[in-house]
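Build the 3D complex.
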Amino acid sequence: MNFADEVCQRVQKVGPLVVGLDPHIEYIPPFLLEQELQDKGKTWEALATAVEKFNRILLDELHGVVELIKIQMAFYEMLGIPGLIALKSTLDYAHRLGYIVIIDGKRNDISSTASAYARGYLSSVSFPGGWLDSYWNADALTINPYLGEDGLLPFIEEANKVNKGIFVLCRTSNTSSPTIQDVAGPEKVFVKVARLVKNLGTVLIGNTGLSSMGIVVGATYSEDIRFLREQFPSLLFLIPGIGAQKGDIESLRYAFRDDGLGAIINVSRGIIFAYRENNNDGLGEGFEKKARDRAVYFQEKFREIIHENSQSY
Amino acid sequence: MNFADEVCQRVQKVGPLVVGLDPHIEYIPPFLLEQELQDKGKTWEALATAVEKFNRILLDELHGVVELIKIQMAFYEMLGIPGLIALKSTLDYAHRLGYIVIIDGKRNDISSTASAYARGYLSSVSFPGGWLDSYWNADALTINPYLGEDGLLPFIEEANKVNKGIFVLCRTSNTSSPTIQDVAGPEKVFVKVARLVKNLGTVLIGNTGLSSMGIVVGATYSEDIRFLREQFPSLLFLIPGIGAQKGDIESLRYAFRDDGLGAIINVSRGIIFAYRENNNDGLGEGFEKKARDRAVYFQEKFREIIHENSQSY
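Done.
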């Protein structure tokens, strides 16, 4: 099935929340980390095993509440090969439980090198005398558009072969994203990116009218969300910035189409580290219950916004 | 020692060539790949082992001719965990032989996530109760500026702690790089990026007056090289696009300062796969001699340009 269609089905089932598995090592529940450090010493293996256990407990607990997971590569790459083994194991486990998994790697390069990323993360790798299915086998990958059109095309080509998704950074959620993204010729860079993605992504449009080549738009820029939604109805938005980054939940109102589709909302720390918000928690036991409660809260809140939104039309 | 100073020393010793280890799996000498496929079957381990052997033979052979190596992450990530093990092993081996190693990962993200990349590739990773030196331990990393200033700062902070380098994509060598990079407000995006890097990178300036935070400028845009050299004397250029991408060697004339410093020139396929240019070669045995000859040729050519350039002043 087309990636965007599959995402829409899941959104209709439980809501648009994407839980980000961004395992900041300093926030991992102490009861998990300390045990591993004791067993394995101060090693990459200890850190990576704690991360992997943390992820599995979360994936078990969030099952049924959430259908979409985003994995932030940086935190796994930081832990070297053991970290990447934990990433692969997390990804496979999430797939076994039926989650859709977006790898947030913000990859970018040109021609055959971009194609190597696209084949490695999404489709398949051929070599003289054979081929192998993608090792990482993500359902979608985030990419960075700074290199322009020919940096994007290889990703579309590979995604198209295997019905997978791409999210192109457009308007990022950070404070200084305007430095580059608001430079304006006839139109601002981020609008140009959105237009480019719309045009290139036409081949990936599914039954919902949404393309499997979407864009990343930060919740912290609500006017831009509104503008992009109006201008680009075929783009699926991946929206970070709610929670730790203080993006306004109300600004999400503009992210959805009348039919309630068109956006998925990422929350990472605000869910997976919810246990830290109360100082009474000591070693973090039961962190997964707090994460689940928070995920339920966000799904309800988002569904409410979608509902109000569609009624106002 | 300051990264830029260290690079300049090496350039003065042998020349500005940076050999790119971009192991396109379809171009690996057949005698290496076939042996591994026979021994290990059609597996990631077979592909990764062939890559690692290829790299080691090249590193041994190029020793003394070349001091700077660039490793393109995409080709290793594409081969999964075995590929990343080959990358780590290549990197360590290159260090053992005394090379300076730039990881070309074009990484990018914001705040704590950007910091995770910077710590993972360059400096050190702390966790409750301890810290570990960077697993990957590159000497420099390429990064992408689309997210603006606060996406760059964490890299500077970490590089500064350990005297390492950063190269920010500025004017990339591909055909459609102008799509984004030429959008012009008061100045074009790529010029704005260069200005930003100049300002942010002041803290990393060494004895040569060059900063360890440099920029990537494609050899395919000679007028831009000239302009950037004139405007930004403190920026160290990493220049790809010679060889496979048909960038003009003569355009490099503008890349250097009067003292012959200020730029390092990447050639990847044009050297490591030089053996393929002659159809007589069958299984690719002796590929390393061709690579060495070609590296010697490029170093001579570049030194000649530097020499002519400094005489013309």
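The mean pLDDT of chain A is 94.
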